[in-house]
Amino acid sequence: MTIATIDGITATTISTDRISTRVLTSGPADGIPVLLLHGNLSSATWWEETMVRLPARYLAIAPDQRGFGEADTAAKVDATRGMGDFVDDAIALMDHLGHDRFHLVGNSLGGVIVWWLMAGHGERILSVTQVDPGSPYGFGGTRDVEGNPTNDDFAGSGGGLINPELVRLISEGDTSTDSMFSPRAALRALVWKPPLVPAREDAFVDSLLQVHIGVDAYPGDKVMSANWPYVAPGVVGVNNALSPKYALDPAQIVESAVKPSVLWVRGAHDLAVSDNAASDPGTWGPMGLVPGYPGADAYPSQPMLGQTRSVLDAYAAAGGTYKEVVIDDCGHVPFIEKPEEFDGVFHEHMADA
User: Fold this and answer.
1) Residue 289: what pLDDT?
2) N or C: which terminus of the chain has fewer CB atoms within 10 Å of its end residue's CB?
């Protein structure tokens, strides 16, 4: 399935020595490059309106990342490398296109990849814009702002957390709202803040349905655990790669020799990334959805915002700079939900850099 692009967007298949994938571009070929990395269960399609709204001096570049959209289905995610595959793909793409330095933007999963790029490739980055990014410590199974694991085996993170009914409906191409677990219903409940329904919702749903399904892709494999909620991360697929078991040490971000300025934009009503995220076992455990919840002392919700703020505070103390902007009445994707407010701070941040 190929999703039609909006006016001003060019779609090209690009092959590097890492991966072959669809890459969307907008703006002048000799413009200042801006690399935009999409989140989980999405694709470059989600960035299109943001790309065409950029000032004329910028060249926007948004790839379908490994495991999503029209990326090569044979290219799997080695979860034991954390975000390593995604980072190497991004650098290979920018090398292939001939861009030594670029502005960098990430949302959700894309934001976790940005943390890794900051740690390992700061010299390539002109500025960083993090839009409701995942925690630098990964998703699930950590108890405090220092990222200490809730369980030694990181139970409560990885592919085993994914609802099998959602996976089934994705594999069937369901576009309805007949089930609370349907892709469209999930987006309406957890991504944009109700009652908003984006004008291009159909395209976003189609993009979600392009996720590569399988035990070696989405949701990935899992390991059974004696620790609640009884599943620990496997070794393949994006959801396992997001486990704190395979996360980088955030000290690498803080200690990076080159520290691009960071804009952290988040929706005030984000349910996907928060200190009580809807998909976090520490949030839904008290609801009895998985029997045996050991209580908040043993398994608290992950303080995702607190973890990000703690790392960025240390980054600033070590010579970097960051600004946090909270957009009211907004969920997980401010660039779609509140485009004027998002563009105002985003464009200013890049111009200042």
Assistant:
1) 84
2) N
How confident is residue 11, by pLDDT bands cut at 50, 70 and 90? very high
* DSSP class of 12: E
pLDDT at residue 290, rounded to an integer: 87
Angle between helices 84-97 and 109-121 (to 10 degrees): 70
Helix residue spans in 106-265 (DSSP H)? 109-121, 164-171, 183-190, 201-208, 238-241, 251-254
Give the DSSP letter string of 244-303. GGG---THHHHT-SS---EEEEEETT-SSSSTT-TT-HHHHGGGTSSTT---TTTSPPP-
**Rounded to whole angstroms, how far apart are CA atoms 293 and 222?**
19
d(CA 150, CA 242): 15
H or E element that contains 311: helix 304-317
d(CA 185, CA 182): 5
The stretch 257-285 carries a mean pLDDT of 97
What token pair was written down for 210? 């392009």
User: Measured between alpha carbons, how far is residue 286 from residues 153, 299, 301 in Å?
Assistant: 21, 10, 10
Q: Give the model's pLDDT for residue 305.
A: 98
Domain ranges of the chain: 10-151+247-352
